[in-house]
């Protein structure tokens, strides 16, 4: 019944793209671009239209259809599907381009490299070797028109129309009847006498010589042109001459031709061919060989063709990571190849692998991911960063390896713009606070301050107000000089985020204290910052109408667009401090670098303890510097909203209680600040929960002081006691310390002049202890009185008589 008939072409799962044919090989076939209907994957479709009276051509086309369908080899055109009807033949293969069109396009784009040609010819010769030596087949049609190139730049052998068996059981070679193809026939075919001795591969190797000539010199005008090698490379000329020799007996077998060209110094002896051969056999290589290969691969990728990297190297890298346990060695070549991908391809192929890598516990992989984050961060969206990347990255802040902690801090410069409110303003700030206060590596503390200055513009207004001033002030007290410089530059980088009150009452007093820093680099940056803030204050003082404009960013929401200013202010950190960090960590892997005139951090067991802190020998100089610090603290106390000093000096007191004896340094001056705050507590506003930064003390906070040497040493000669200073009153400095009697506490080594042992919060506790002692004494006196009265009554009655009963 006719209505049940179906059109096989319409039901075919592939369709032709309505474009003109690409110009396939000379003969009956027309090459079209196509795609799979279900997925849209690109394919190539060879179409033959059956014409009346062309039975011979139809038989040739059907034979080619059958050969292509049954022959499977990596270097032969890959068959996907086919359709045979009474009107046409359709052969679907992988998406390819004819070699002639490919070479023309590459010449217009800048030319084809010899590396690519060497590998392409290697593939064609390998395909011929398979046909001749393994299948006993003669291709009989090797020419430019029979070679195709896939999207990875791989050369494929096609044009199987005139293939025949070398054993003679299928008849002789079919007649071509096409002049364009017959010009590639060897001269011995014209001799019909049969006296010429030849090998079964002789004719195909002659045609291979013609192909080599055309690749380097263009279309072959006539057979006589083969005598002139033209542009053929010198390393290939001797082997080419063997191919086009008049004696077919001396033409080499395809396998021997490959061996000759692969000899040291040969045309096919290069890194590109070796890389391709390794990739073809990578599944059977040993793990150690794979590791070495991937380590050396990234050095060669720059010289390799882009299409080869995208479509051949990349799939192998992804497979090696997914199934081959290649580990971190694939990261460098993977990101190098990723540069050739579009944004959509990167999202599909690279990002899923990157997300999986971040969950790895391999330290080498984690640190390489952090080092190369700049190459893929632009392709990560915010939900992915916050839910799948950041939770794994923050583990690096707690890692025992300093290099991983350092790279984790640096990576926050790239992640911060994509973090949500909770991760940026809470979780990240908690880790930064702990690193800046407790990390034993000075360079890491320095980079933490630098990073905070760069990402400050992304923080919310409340977090900026609560964190920045406290953090940079903490950095200015760091024993590591570059950290103090970073604190100053942090203030400068975020200068537009502070109100005029904060500039005058909080920032300038801190900066003024650094003008007498032992390091000249710190003093220089401090003076620059002071001049900057003073000019800002002066301009507002001259014209108060500018106040609103100057403070427009103080309460503004986080603005990524403002990051350029901070980057220019603190650009020094990425170059100078980064290299300094890695250098110092390599030299001192477990201890902080030695400081100058500042107490050192404690060192682990087995490491020599740092030298005692030098204290100025002249009392006058020491008193002068101490007074400068006290002036700074007093100025900070004048601000009612300065919660930083409350928490800072309280944490220093906690550290002082754990140290019985320590040298008198600048940090002792903070006790007066604390005392003044205790005495004026009624006049200070209460802390709001939002600004209670001390809630993170368990994890480490900005307010915790720097640990001081634990060795118990007497003060050096010339050191002035705290009680000898004149704290601004009319009394002379030789009077006793009015607080010494109040704060004296029993200890194994009493030091009444050491403020490190004082704890102002313990005064009330001592008062309660005194009352308890007084009550105990009264009870003891009462007990003694009662015993005395009983003794008196007993003596008055006299001794008891035998048998008398005691009535009382």
TrEMBL record:
Chain intervals with Acidic residues compositional bias: 755-764
CDD domains: PK_SCY1_like
Biased segments, Polar residues type: 660-680
Ranges of compositional bias, category Pro residues: 601-617
Ranges of Basic and acidic residues composition bias in the record: 681-690, 765-775, 782-795
GO biological process: inflammatory response; intracellular protein localization; neuron development; retrograde vesicle-mediated transport, Golgi to endoplasmic reticulum; spinal cord motor neuron differentiation
Record region (Disordered): 541-562, 591-646, 659-808
Main location: cytoplasm
Compartments where located: Cytoplasm, Cytoskeleton, Microtubule organizing center, Centrosome; Endoplasmic reticulum-Golgi intermediate compartment; Golgi apparatus, cis-Golgi network
Matches recorded under PROSITE patterns: PROTEIN_KINASE_DOM
Gene Ontology CC terms, in alphabetical order: centrosome; cis-Golgi network; COPI vesicle coat; cytosol; endoplasmic reticulum-Golgi intermediate compartment
Any one Gene Ontology molecular-function term assigned to this protein's record: protein kinase activity
SUPFAM superfamilies, alphabetized: ARM repeat, Protein kinase-like (PK-like)
Pfam families attached to this UniProt entry: Pkinase
Annotated family: Belongs to the protein kinase superfamily.
Function, in words: Regulates COPI-mediated retrograde protein traffic at the interface between the Golgi apparatus and the endoplasmic reticulum. Involved in the maintenance of the Golgi apparatus morphology.
Protein name, as recorded: N-terminal kinase-like protein
UniProt organism field: Papio anubis (Olive baboon)
